[in-house]
Write a structure and sequence with these properties.
alpha/beta, Spore Coat Polysaccharide Biosynthesis Protein SpsA, Chain A, eight-stranded mixed beta sheet, globular
Length: 438
């Protein structure tokens, strides 16, 4: 297996340069003539907002993101022509959900002789190992790999340990709380083969959306994210994997060097390495993979810090390739726009507010922030009004969308906090686990 081509060095210095650059960008308009101070934000709002709005509202075309109809004639398939699939799950302290997951996988309408299930017990301290041993006596297709708590590498390390044991053409990577419809594997494989994809990400849907307001908002956020992903791919941009419900051709992941054990978000890191390998990625709206949303603000805060850090790590690690001739103009434009909106804008806005308070002037980047939140509002509206198999999506009423937009403002706290922390403190790779309740 080839080595992972990643430069994880000097992340602290790169984060510091990023903070300084965003700080200057946020402060500078306050020291130019007041009549011109809004022009940087207005210009960016026109350019970035225009691209973002086009991404959200552009009709989905081609085969890179579409529905596979649920009445697909499964019986018409020749079992011998179906690819062999290895279903991989890295599980740590998942005794509450692991039994349900194994039963769901076993019930998939796919020939038992054409897929195997591999669960890596990643140093669990609860009864996960005991439960898996009992399940292995019942389910013939279940293979269990055990790792000690000190083996390191997090989820990436667990998945890498399983790679050398696999024989399938494809890997389907699931989280321990995942739920799939019985025909999901057939439809996912059909989509991947007909689209000539190297990887496919299922839309993520929230099982426990009705639990409280926070879980409902996360259900809307997942739909919004899938809409944006579809639009980016349709316009020739970049698609991203989301960890749970991702189908990847085994030969491609091996050529990419396996999973990167020096990042806290294996899916986002792998998305870039697939991009550099010219591997086509598709987004499948229906059927979705269902998962639990976190149910408390504290759990959300821990989860989003990890997502933010992993998202920034990949840009810091791979920036030479991102600006090289390896990517097309449309891919570079797409990455630049969403990097500025998703990561730079929150840090710039913080610098803008601090400078405004110090100089007793008005903030200057509010036009760009308003446009960014408006684009998100359109994505919420389009996502929640789309037909969804699985859990119902919240109705996109105006008040609901306004609440969802307000909810997204938590990123304007998470991103600056994580970025400043990355710039000031040396990183110890710790994979913060999301607790699943079943």
């Amino acid at each position: 297996m080839a080595a992972v081509a990643v430069n994880g060095e000097y992340r602290r210095g790169k984060a510091a340069l990023f903070v300084i650059a965003c700080g200057w960008a946020g402060a500078l308009p306050h020291w130019i003539e007041s009549s011109l101070s809004l022009w940087p934000a207005i210009t960016l709002a026109f350019l970035l907002g225009g691209y973002g709005l086009r991404t959200v509202l552009y009709p989905v075309r081609g085969k890179r993101s579409f529905h596979v109809e649920p009445d697909f004639e499964i019986q018409s398939l020749d079992d011998q022509k179906l690819p062999y699939i290895d279903v991989l799950v890295a599980a740590r302290d998942e005794e509450a959900v692991i039994g349900r997951l194994v039963a769901r996988i076993d019930s998939l309408r796919y020939p038992k002789a054409r897929f195997s299930t591999w669960i890596i017990d990643d140093g669990s301290r609860d009864r996960t190992a005991v439960v898996l041993q009992e399940l292995a006596q019942t389910f013939d297709n279940l293979n269990v790999i055990s790792r000690s708590p000190d083996e390191g590498g997090g989820k990436s390390g667990a998945l890498n340990q399983a790679l050398s044991k696999l024989k399938g053409d494809w890997l389907l990577i699931l989280d321990a709380d995942a739920q799939l419809q019985e025909d999901a594997l057939y439809r996912l494989v059909t989509f991947a083969q007909e689209g000539s994809f190297s990887a496919v990400q299922l839309r993520k849907a929230v099982i426990n959306a009705s639990h409280n307001s926070l879980t409902r908002l996360q259900a809307m956020e997942m739909a919004m994210d899938a809409v944006i992903q579809q639009g980016r791919l349709t316009l020739g941009g970049v698609g991203e994997l989301r960890g749970n419900g991702q189908l990847i051709r085994r030969s491609v992941i091996e050529n990419c060097g396996g999973f990167n054990e020096e990042t806290v978000t294996d899916d986002l890191d792998l998305s870039f390495r697939l991009l550099f390998a010219d591997a086509l990625v598709g987004i499948l709206w229906n059927p979705p993979v269902q998962e639990e949303a976190v149910e408390t603000v504290h759990a959300l805060w821990r989860q989003r810090q990890r997502w933010a850090e992993g998202g920034l790590q990949r840009f810091f690690d791979y920036w030479p390739s991102l600006i090289s001739s390896r990517l097309s103009v449309s891919q570079k434009l797409d990455l630049a726009c969403f990097f500025l909106l998703q990561y730079a804008l929150p840090v710039i806005s913080l610098a803008d507010l601090m400078t405004a308070a110090f100089t007793r002037t008005m903030p200057t980047y509010w036009p760009l922030s308003i446009v960014a939140f408006s684009v998100s509002g359109f994505a919420f509206w389009r996502g929640c009004r789309s037909f969804s198999e699985g859990p119902d999506l919240p109705s996109p009423q105006p008040l609901t969308i306004l609440l969802a937009i307000f909810y997204l403002s938590h990123w304007f706290v998470v991103i600056p906090w994580v970025t400043i922390r990355m710039a000031l403190f040396p990183k110890k790779l710790i994979w913060a686990k999301t607790t699943h309740h079943g």
